Amino acid sequence: MKNVKVLIGNYGSGKSELALNFAIQAAARGERTELIDLDMVNTYFRLTERGKLVEQKEIRLVSPNYACSGIETLSLPAEVASAFVLDWDTVVFDVGGDDVGATALGRYKSDFDDMTDDQLEVLNVVNIRRPLSGTVEKLIRLQDGMAKHSRLKITGMINNTNLATETGEEELRDGYKMLKEVSDRTGIPIAYTTGKKALLDKFLAEGHDPKYIGTPIAIDMYMHRDWDSYIKYGLHTVDPQKNFKH
Asked: Which segment of 24-28, 57-61, 92-96 scores lowest on mean pLDDT?
């Protein structure tokens, strides 16, 4: 039976990294897998830039037209419809972290409506260390806005709290505490908790309530980009002054 995961979330939440991990793990299990990049705004973390890796894993990638061509006027390709009409085992959508991305998803509402609850997961990827995500009230407001624009019901949350290379187990712990309250207030469960294996194992060993952990998923880093560097230096992946020659 086809499984479709739709990943939405705030900027810097780690949607693209998780989308890539979910797709690669599905392909490794022998599943016919399609990965759809609906990030219409953020070129810095666009999945298309990992096209060769995806191809090596025998995953079909569908991305906005002109992605990685240097042209920033993007449109959705007709191939997005293949997620619904072709015989995939797993389809993963990476949706942009703003109203534009969520609205782009909304045009396929009738296709999603035809799917059963067992087939479709609409997952809010949460990183409480990112701007606009640091309180329960902000998280609920963001989540409500994304559900409104996408016209899809969010079925679960993912605790993906991290600080890139500075991440410790306290990130997952703090994310757990905040998402526990969000879940209790909204009724939306925590579907997954994700992180590098060593940190995830330490967090799980602390004995937290499994109800607010969901399924733990160890992930690898494929995107090799740091959101904090992007905020500070723009499209440079490191401090440009470090490479400046006098």
From this structure: 92-96
Q: What is the DSSP string of 59-110?
A: -EEE--BTTTTT----B--GGGGHHHHS--SEEEEEE-SSHHHHHHHHTTHH
Backbone angles phi, psi at 78, to 5 degrees: -65, -20
Nearest-5° Cα angle at 10, 139 to 48: 160
- Amino acid letter at 198? A
What is the domain extent for residue 177? 3-243
Domain of 16: which CATH number?
Answer: 3.40.50.300
Q: How many domains does the chain have?
A: 1
48-68 per-position pLDDT tens digit: 566 778 888 999 998 875 544
- Span 159-171, mean pLDDT? 86
Give strand pairing partners of 92.
5, 35
State the DSSP string of 155-220: -EEEE----GGG--HHHHHHHHHHHHHHHHHH-PPEEEEEE-HHHHHHHHTT---GGGT-EEEE--
Packing angle between helix 136-150 and helix 99-106, nearest 10 degrees? 40
Rounded CA separation 209/196 (Å)? 20
Rounded Cα gap, residues 186 and 69, in angstroms? 41
60 phi and psi, to 5 degrees?
A: -85, 125
Distance separating alpha carbons of residues 245 and 235, to the nearest angstrom: 19
